[in-house]
Design goal:
Layout: E1 16-22, H1 30-41, E2 44-48, H2 55-64, E3 70-75, H3 80-83, H4 87-93, E4 100-104, H5 116-122, E5 127-128, H6 132-149
The structure holds cobalamin.
Residues 1-2, 25-31, 34-35, 72, 74, 76-78, 101, 103-105, 108-109, 129, 131-132, 135 line the site of cobalamin.
C-alpha cells in the first residue's frame, strides 16, 4: 500500500460529498476504512456504506444524496465484474449523473486480465483509479467543476 499523507495536509472545508462502499461479495474492510478516513481528512462528507454493499444500496444512497460528487466502489476479492453486472441498468433507472469510480484488486490473480477495464466500463464503471490519493485529487477536481457550474445565489436583501 502506498503511504497516505497526513490527513491534515490539504484540508479543504466542505469539499463536497462522496458515496463510498465495497462491492457486494466483498468483505475486505481495511482499505474502505482508510479511504473514508483519508477523504474526511480532505474535508469531504463521506457516506460510507461499508463492505458487502449491493449496487442497489449504492443507488439508494444516491437517491438520498443526489449532489454527491461520485460513487466510489472498492473491490478486493477479484469479483468486481460479477458484483457490478447490474450497474448500468440501475444507473439508468436511478438517473445517476455522477461518475462511478472503482478501485482495488479487480480480477482474480495478481495480474489484471486483458480486456477487464473495457468490460468494467461496459457494465457502467466510469473510471478505475488505483490509490486513495488519486481518488482524493479527482474528487477535488469534481468539486471545483460542481462549484463552477452552480448558479450564483444573491442573498435576499442583497444586490438590487
Ligand atoms: C486481510 C485480508 C483478508 C481478511 C479481510 C478482513 C477484513 N475485515 O478486512 C479476510 C481473512 C476476511 C479475507 C478474506 C478473503 N480474502 Co483476503 N486478503 C486480505 C489481505 C491479506 C490484506 C487486504 C488488506 O486489508 N490490505 C490493506 C489495504 C489498505 O490495501 P488494499 O486492500 O490492497 O487496498 C489498496 C488498493 O487496492 C486501493 N484501493 C482499495 N479499495 C479502493 C477503492 C477505490 C475507489 C480506490 C480508488 C482505491 C482502492 O487503495 C488501498 C490503499 O492503497 C489481502 C492480501 C494483501 N496483502 O493485500 C488478501 C486478499 C485481498 N484476499 C484475497 C482473497 C482471495 C480472499 C478470500 C476470497 C479468501 C477465501 N478463499 O476465503 C476471502 C474473501 C472474503 C470476501 N467475501 O471478500 C485475495 C484476492 C485475490 C484477487 N483479487 O485475485 C488477496 C489479494 C490475497 C491473495 N494474494 O490471494 N482476506
Amino acid at each position: 500500500m502506498s503511504k497516505l499523507p497526513p490527513t491534515h495536509a490539504a484540508i479543504v472545508p466542505d469539499a463536497g460529498k462522496v458515496i463510498l462502499g465495497v462491492a457486494a461479495s466483498d468483505a475486505h474492510a481495511v482499505a474502505n476504512h482508510l479511504i473514508a478516513h483519508y477523504l474526511r481528512g480532505l474535508g469531504f462528507q463521506v457516506i460510507n456504506l461499508g463492505v458487502c454493499t449491493p449496487v442497489s444500496e449504492f443507488m439508494g444512497a444516491y437517491d438520498e444524496h443526489r449532489d454527491a460528487l461520485a460513487i466510489a466502489i472498492g473491490s478486493m476479492n477479484g469479483h468486481a465484474l460479477q458484483d457490478l453486472r447490474e450497474l448500468k441498468l440501475l444507473k439508468q433507472r436511478h438517473q445517476v449523473r455522477c461518475p462511478v469510480i472503482l478501485g482495488g484488486n479487480l480480477s482474480v490473480g495478481s495480474r489484471k486480465r486483458d480486456g477487464l477495464e473495457a468490460d468494467l466500463q461496459e457494465v457502467g464503471v466510469t473510471m478505475i483509479l488505483e490509490s486513495p490519493e488519486q481518488l482524493g485529487q479527482h474528487l477535488l477536481r469534481l468539486r471545483d467543476q460542481q462549484r463552477a457550474a452552480a448558479p450564483i445565489r444573491v442573498a435576499a436583501g442583497g444586490a438590487r
